[in-house]
Amino acid sequence: MDEAASSVLDFRMPPEWATHARTWMAWPCNDFVLEDDPEGAWRAWAAAASAIVRFEPVTMIVPPGQTAQARKYLADGVDTVERPIGDSWFRDSGPTFVIGRDGGLCAVDWTFNGWGGRTFPEAKDDALIARAVAEMADARRLPSKLVNEGGGIHVDGEGTLLLTESVQLNPNRNPNWTKAEVEAECHRLLGTRHTIWLTRGVVADSGARGTDGHIDTLACFAAPGVVLAHGQPDKSHPDYESSAENIAILKAAKDAKGRDLEVIVIDAPADRQDADGDPLSLSYINFYICNGGVVMCRFDDRQDEVVAELFTRLFPGRRVAGVDAVRIFEGGGGVHCITQQQPAV
Which SS3 state, helix, strand or coil, does residue 120 take? Predict the structure, then answer.
């Protein structure tokens, strides 16, 4: 059911660590992701789904006619449903689930324009998939004129919102929106009241496969008042300055309750290059919290174990599972980018 959001209705996006009903994903199908190694992409997405389904239900959206092919890789417990899709970054094209004042499930349907016009013929299907998933989830659909993607937002569940100026304020998305208007629309639909703006993202996010700087590679809340931030210790790396700048912003910021933030910097692993010789800007921040678990990105790097131990301390009562995420990053993102949580109601 569609419903125009208004000041009469209140909505709240639960933090990622709140209980989920399920996780939604989309099967790799776009040439940007498949490239010369489609099987590598299929195995990577399937591995992420297999890790998550140990903790909660997973539904994988599959392009029409591709279920048999997908089932060769997916664990038996992963559900599949066929719908037209153009890409596999479901954090971005899928709906952002929120809870209404009445406790019912709602789905924010942001305007999706292919990450600021980085488009392809199938992008029209991605602009419609949030509506389809809202119907499948029996959620009230809340359409928004704000051009936005799910990977561009992060909340603490207590009124604080993280955004990036290079995304929501980019002329390729919202050329006629002021910062105040962007904040107001996000607050209206997510139940937040205070925004912390970072400036820009990692260099790999600025190219043809990029998002212009999604927050979910840069920073996220581990708990109210606790932020994990992407760090780049290599001064020769093109992400060094932007990472330091974003960390400084977070350390100077306060949350919606006026608290100083505890900022925990997680250094990037040794970086790798894509086929064109450009850095992949690997990030441990792009992990996913699910019921009883944390699914982290692994990069076959000695830093993997350091981060796994940190997550074990930060998320007591949750089991840390790792997924080899290099192939996912080669396509343009990480584990968080390919998942979308549906909160329990």
Answer: coil
CB distance 74 to 67 below 8 Å: no
From 29, 220, 297, 337, the catalytic residue: 337
106 in active site: no
338 neighbors 41 (Cβ within 8 angstroms): no
Predicted TM-score (pTM) of the model is 0.95
Q: How far apart are CA 336 and CA 297, in angstroms?
A: 9
Q: How far apart are CA 34 and CA 233, in angstroms?
A: 31
pLDDT in tens, 184-193: 999 999 999 9
User: Which of these ranges, 20-34, 173-187, 233-247, has the smallest mean pLDDT?
Assistant: 20-34
For the chain, the domains span 11-343
Class assignment of domain 11-343? alpha beta
Least confident of 78-82, 85-89, 146-150, 233-237: 85-89
Residue among 162, 335, 152 nearest 263 (CA): 162
pLDDT band, residue 273 (cuts 50/70/90): confident
**CA gyration radius for the chain?**
18
313: enclosing H helix or E strand: helix 303-314
H or E stretch covering 323: strand 319-324
